[in-house]
Each structure stands twice: as C-alpha cells, then as structure tokens.
Amino acid sequence: MKTLIAALAFVSLSSFAASVPVMTLSPRSLTRSFDVKGSFGINEKLGRAWAEVTEVNHDVDSMDDVYREQVKGLSLVGDTVVLEVEGQNVECAKVRHVGIFHYPVARATGNCKFLATEKIVMEDDGFEIHKRRKIVVTLETK
C-alpha cells in the first residue's frame, strides 16, 4: 500500500517556484556575518519530515545551534521528502540508509533550497521601539 501511495505522489510531482517560510532567528552577534544552513530531518516510523536549521557559531569555544521546525506541507511519502505548495508536490529529498546500522538520512535533491536573508525590523517592547536584526529562513523551490 505504501508503494502505491508513493507512486501516486511521484506522478503528481512537478516543478514550480515557491517560497515557504521556515523560521525567523535573532542572531547571536550583531557585528558578524551570519551563517545559516538547512537540512531535512525525518522519522520513518511516523512518516514525518521537518526542517533542521543550523546557526553556525564561528567561536572556537561554542557549539552550533540547531533548530527543528515543522514546515507546513512538508511530509515523508515512502522514501521521499515531499513539499506540497498550492496543490503541487515537489520532491525535496530522498531517504538513504547509511552506515553499518542503516541509519536513515534525507539527502537533498536540489529541488528545494534553504535561503537565509537578513532583515532589520522594528520591535516594540511596550516601552520603547528598537531596531533588531533578524535572519529569515525560507524554503525555496525551483
């Protein structure tokens, strides 16, 4: 049954340009350039997929921050991570089993790319208005 569902999903896969919001980050440092990377996380048993956004820390003493975010329309269909946008399905990643324990890993197909852009926003804390630097992460399809 799973293969039938996966086959039906592949038939409807098409390529079109869309932008799906993933998350907004407040960078640690206001002076440094930002470095944000995205990938896909999966849970094969539950048939779920999500975005994993890594904020790379260039300090030697600190580790990178990794955030897991659910993305509307992102799911695991068979062995494929699919993004549904406006009734269209885009194949974002294929699941491969690696290592001696056959650990599942989602490998990006190139149809969906993570894009991080810097934005200056005005925030009102109830007392004053402050300019804040934000990093907006989106998932772009071809």
Give the tags:
globular, 142 residues, four-stranded antiparallel β-sheet, mainly beta, three-stranded antiparallel β-sheet
Can you offer a commentary on this structure?
There is one protein chain. The protein is mainly beta and 142 residues long. The chain contains 1 helix and 10 strands, in the order H-E-E-E-E-E-E-E-E-E-E. It has one helix spanning 2-11; strands spanning 18-25, 36-43, 48-55, 65-69, 74-77, 80-85, 88-98, 103-108, 112-124, 129-141. The strands form 3 sheets. Strands 5-6-7-8 form a 4-stranded antiparallel sheet. A 3-stranded antiparallel sheet has the order 1-10-9, with no helix packed on it.
Gyration radius (Cα, Å) is 18 Å
The succession of helices and strands, N to C, reads HEEEEEEEEEE
Largest sheet: 4 strands, antiparallel
Strand share of the residues?
A: over 45%
- Alpha-carbon distance between the two ends: 30 Å
Q: Can you list the strand order of the major beta sheet?
A: 5-6-7-8
The averaged pLDDT comes out at: 84
* Structural class computed from helices and strand pairing: mainly beta
